[in-house]
Amino acid sequence: MIDILIFFLGVALFLYVLLGGADFGAGIIELLTGKKSIRTISKAIAPIWETNHIWIILVIVILFNGFPKVYTTITTYLHIPLLITLIGIIIRGTSFTFRYYDIPDQKISIYYSNFFRISSMITPFFFGIVLGAIILGRIPAHPEGSFYEVFIHPWLNLFSVSTGIFVTLLFAWLASVFLIGEEENSIEAKSRYPQISLLFFVLLIISGVLVFIFAEFDNVHLLNQFLNSTVSTVCLVIATLLVPIMWVSIKKSKALITRIIAGFLTFFILLGWFGIQFPVMVYINNGAHLTVWNSAAPLATVKYLVYALIVGILIIFPSFGYLYKIFKFNQT
Q1: CB neighbours of 121 closer than 8 A, spacing ≥ 6?
Q2: Is 208 part of a structural domain of the chain?
Q3: H/E stretch holding 281
Q4: 290 by DSSP, 3-state: which?
Q5: Rg value, the chain, Cα
Q6: Is residue 330 a part of any domain in this protein?
């Protein structure tokens, strides 16, 4: 049952990174393009992309009910970056909604747009910081020490910041990929997102290398962990082989193929991380790491949670398919 629960957790996390990540990344794209892309991005986001927050809700529900020790540890010791993330999600969603549906006042719209863009960048950055802190292993086993040692030191470091930058660039790149083919006006407009996508693709690769470099500075031998894991090594090789294919696809503005390859790249990035992380869920500074097995809820709780997830998925996936069919595939 725990294996099934981990599978659901992985699927929810993957879908949130892929779809919700593109949602956040759209705001980052606006930081570069300004007014030029507001219409296209608003058209793409408004009908469906905000619903992708359901995947992070699913992640939270699984952690809260299935792995309460993990949930408690993360929300206690990493409450500062998590709080910033939650504030960013709220500001981003409300500012976009107000901009899209409020009265057409140019001055007010500028404020909404600025809040939307800035929060779209801050939120994934702190998502990445939380991820880096979970991997790094500076989270204390007990809340002993100064406020800085307990609640700031675990996440304010080079490695966590580098993972924050990587996640931010990943989301921006995914957004630029999903926006290829959305622009239907001039030739200049149609070439805008492939160019931005290539830029973020290069930055993403550079930031990925920096994650491995900064990991060494913080005594996390991430590259060795990847090379010692068969799953992670295979994922790293496949992702590397997909890079030139991705590059050509973006250059040729092949919207559908580019999105599919981007999905596979995102999958292999997450699977590669899973390969070095499993079965540990949170690394603790004294070596008493929280694993899938020692942090799971009682078997009865896990069993009924899995049943509830199966029923929920049977409702969610058809609903999402219908939503996409109406707003994306039936557009004229």
Answers
A1: 27, 28, 31, 168
A2: yes
A3: strand 280-282
A4: strand
A5: 20
A6: no
DSSP string for residues in 100-150 = HHS---HHHHHHHHHHHHHHHHHHHHHHHHHHHHHHHT-B-SS--S-HHHH
Answer yes or no: are the C-beta atoms of 89 and 53 closer than 8 Å.
Answer: yes
CA within 13 Å, CB half, 126: 18
Per-residue model confidence as pLDDT tens digits over 294-309: 999 999 999 999 999 9
Structural domain total, the chain: 1
Using DSSP, state whether 186 is helix, strand or coil. Answer: coil
Domain residues for the domain of 129 are 2-323
Q: Residue 331 falls within a domain, yes or no? A: no
**What does the pLDDT look like over 106-129, one tens digit per residue?**
677 788 888 988 999 999 999 999
Chain position carrying tokens 């910081």: 129
92 within a domain of the structure (yes/no) = yes
- For residue 282, what are the β-bridge partners? 290
Q: Which residues contact 301 (CB under 8 A, 6 or more apart)?
A: 65, 66
β-pairing, 280-282 with 290-291?
antiparallel
At 245, phi and psi to the nearest 5?
Answer: -65, -40
